[in-house]
Every structure is written in C-alpha cells, then in structure tokens.
Specification:
Layout: H1 18-21, H2 24-30, E1 37-40, H3 53-58, E2 65-73, E3 80-82, H4 93-107, E4 111-113, E5 123-130, H5 143-162, E6 166-175, E7 183-195, E8 198-206, E9 212-222
Antiparallel strand pairs: 1-2, 2-5, 3-4, 4-7, 5-7, 6-9, 7-8, 8-9
C-alpha cells in the first residue's frame, strides 16, 4: 500500500507527486521504514496565528512549487542537559517542596544539546519539486527561495517536535552551488540546541545524491502563549 497522501488538496490544487515517484532516490526515501510521518502541505482554514499561505497558496502552482512532502524521522539520541544546578545533603519536607518548585521553574531554562552529525538525531525532510517561476538567473533558483526553503524545513521540524509555532529570530545561509531549475530537491533539518523558548537548528538543501547546494543555521523563538506537549525527541 502506498504511503503517499492523496495528491488533491481541499481547494482543488494538485500536488505533482509523480515528480517524486519517478525518481529512484525519492522512492527509496519514501519507503524508508525509519520515517514515521509523511504529509503533504496543508491548506489551512482561517487562523489568527499561522496561515503559511506562501507555500499553500502563493507558490502552489505547476510552475513554482509543484509538489511538497514533509517527512519526519524520529531519532534514538538522548538529549544532553547542560544544567549546573547540584544538590547534596538531606532535604526536609519543606526543602523538598522548595526544591521541586525550583526545578519546575528551571526545567524550561535547562539547555539541551543534540549533535547534527549523529545519524540518530531526529530529522525533518522536505521533498520539493520546483518549476521555472522561482528563478533568479536564467534556469537558476533564486537565492531567496533557497533561504526560504531552509527556514521552512527548520520551522516545520520545530513545530512538529514541540507542537508549537515559532518565529525566526536569525537565519544564516551559506550557498555552495547553483541550483538548476526545474528540479527536485531534498531539504533536511535537525535541532541542535534548546534553552527555554529559544531553539537553534541546522539545515541543508541537497540533490538527493549527497550534493549540497546550501546549508543554513537558524534560531527560532517558540510562541509563549501556547502550552506545548512533551517534546517528541
């Protein structure tokens, strides 16, 4: 049975998923059993906080962003906690209550670190099929679109892990090679650091065979008005 979602959106637009299924490396990725979630872009109802209409409407054409799939691969890596708080000795019940309240307050401040080179660190993938309407130079992907794709894959990963929205605070992109359009790209992202609502992530844009076109580092701030569920890491 196919793991692919139905190509038709609620608003009549069609994901050109055959752009992916016609490529062996995409087929290998889509059949990877370590990937636990495959989703197409959503056409959201009217919301006050997030619409993401850049991807779900503006770029959703046969000549721009033809097809889009997000995939999540959970990892097995334990988080490293950089918390210097140390307690020694015997606690009275009153001390225990104070200690508990202290750790509840400090829990969101503890720094958590993951390795970007560890294959067991959780990872988000985006499969992207692009046409010619996102060019900068002739048959060359616009650099701003590449930066947007990196921002999207990193933000999508954060939203999935923490069940929360986030705002981009910083984004640095290193361009390594030109992207010829039309094309199918693989965008990847991993979270590498979290402290409170501040999250740092790294991302890559590749051709599916290991060639890297661009790499990025981003910092994001999660929405403080949303109660987050337990992280999926």
């Amino acid at each position: 049975m196919s793991r692919l979602p139905h190509p038709h959106s609620a608003h009549g637009r069609i994901e050109r998923l055959h752009d992916f299924t016609s490529l062996d490396w995409c087929q290998d990725l889509l059949s990877d059993p370590s990937i636990t979630r495959i989703s197409k872009r959503q056409i959201p109802d009217q919301r006050d906080d997030v619409s993401n209409t850049l991807f779900t409407k503006t770029l959703f054409t046969d000549d721009a962003l033809r097809a889009f799939l997000s995939m999540y691969r959970p990892g097995r890596t334990e988080r490293e906690y950089h918390d210097k708080a140390v307690f020694t000795g015997t606690m009275t019940p009153a001390d225990a209550s104070v200690e508990h309240n202290y750790h509840v307050k400090q829990e969101s401040k503890a720094e958590e670190v993951w390795s970007a080179i560890d294959p067991d660190t959780p990872e988000m993938y985006l499969l992207i099929s692009l046409g010619r309407d996102v060019d900068g130079g002739v048959r060359r992907l616009h650099g701003g679109v590449a930066a947007t794709l990196l921002d999207q894959v990193m933000g999508t990963l954060i939203s999935y892990i923490y069940d929360n929205t986030s705002a981009t605070a910083d984004l640095n992109v290193k361009y390594k090679a030109a992207v010829t359009t039309p094309c199918v790209l693989l965008c990847r992202a991993k979270v590498v650091r979290k402290r409170g609502r501040w999250i740092e992530s790294v991302g890559w844009i590749e051709d599916g065979h290991g060639k890297v076109f661009a790499e990025g580092k981003g910092a994001f701030v999660m929405n403080k008005n949303v109660t987050t569920a337990a992280a999926k890491i």
